[in-house]
Specification:
The protein is mainly β. 12% of the residues lie in helices and 29% in strands.
């Protein structure tokens, strides 16, 4: 299934994308797509629905973040060997983790705001893993049972804040609008191999990143298992699994007012964000 949320910010309703590409409203079936509705029983119920009987949603509606109620965004740094190499940083022996504020979450096509004083805004196309059931000390072979689905995340960064002003890395990662997610939460049964998804990021017509999830050092299931041994993962939590090479800090090209970012990951859809400098 491809699940999503639509409507004005703060007033989103749950929906699904049917086989014909029509958005169908789910608000009479479940209250929202969030921690209480990401478990197996809800997903099984949604699969049993006759989607043709669900009300269609206008294509002009805003698409919101594909999950509500996220408690944590756990990010994995340097999880693509080519990105570690371009950053001239040794590849971590174990997954390198940091947190990103949930207040940075926006819809996949919402405006990205560069905060006042930002000089080095940067893009990062990534596979996001959305947790469906509580995961604590989960063995690798059971990790898939705790995943509600996958989506695209743009793990935006402000490199001046991140590297040049001291303190924790989260400072440069957590600005408002710095985590567009969606357009859809795609359930695992829709993806034959999550470690073989092409991914691209285009900025104002120039392809900046072009890679595949097959280049990840630590795969999606490994990350769920690994992280669950250090912190309990709760339904709605998001794991941003790392970005490939081609980021702006290496190219010496940073986001500017008026730029447009287009991010694509096979089977997970497309994001488009206009950049506005505050």
């Amino acid at each position: 299934m491809k699940l999503l949320r639509y409507g004005e910010p703060g007033k989103e309703r749950p929906a699904l994308l049917d086989a014909d590409g029509i958005i169908r409203d789910l608000s009479h079936v479940l209250p929202d797509l969030g921690p209480d509705t990401l478990g197996r029983s809800t997903m099984d119920h949604l699969r049993s629905l006759d989607t043709a009987t669900l009300p269609p949603v206008s294509a002009s509606e805003r698409i919101g973040p594909c999950v509500a109620g996220t408690r944590n965004i756990i990010c994995v740094g340097l999880n693509y060997a080519d990105h570690a190499e371009e950053a001239d940083t040794p590849l971590p022996k174990e997954p390198y983790l940091f947190l990103k504020s949930v207040h940075s979450i926006i819809g996949p096509n919402d405006v990205v705001e560069l905060p006042r004083g930002a000089l080095k805004g940067d893009w990062e196309v990534e596979l996001a893993i959305i947790i469906g059931t509580k995961a604590k000390s989960v063995p690798l072979e059971s990790a898939i049972d705790h995943i509600a689905g996958y989506c695209i995340i743009n793990d935006l960064s402000e490199r001046t804040y991140q590297f040049e002003q001291g303190g924790d890395i989260a400072k440069g990662k957590s600005c408002d609008t710095f985590a567009p997610i969606g357009p859809w939460l795609v359930t695992p049964d829709e993806i034959p191999d999550v470690q073989d998804l092409a991914m691209t990021c285009v900025v104002s017509g120039e392809t900046m990143q072009s890679s595949s999830t097959k280049a990840m050092v630590h795969g999606a299931l490994k990350l769920v298992s690994y992280i669950s041994h250090y912190m309990t993962l709760m339904p709605g939590d998001i794991i941003a699994s790392g970005t490939p090479s081609g980021v702006g800090m290496i190219r010496g090209r940073f986001l500017r007012d008026g730029d447009e970012m287009i991010l694509r990951v096979d089977r997970l859809g497309e994001q488009r964000q206009r950049v506005v400098a505050l």
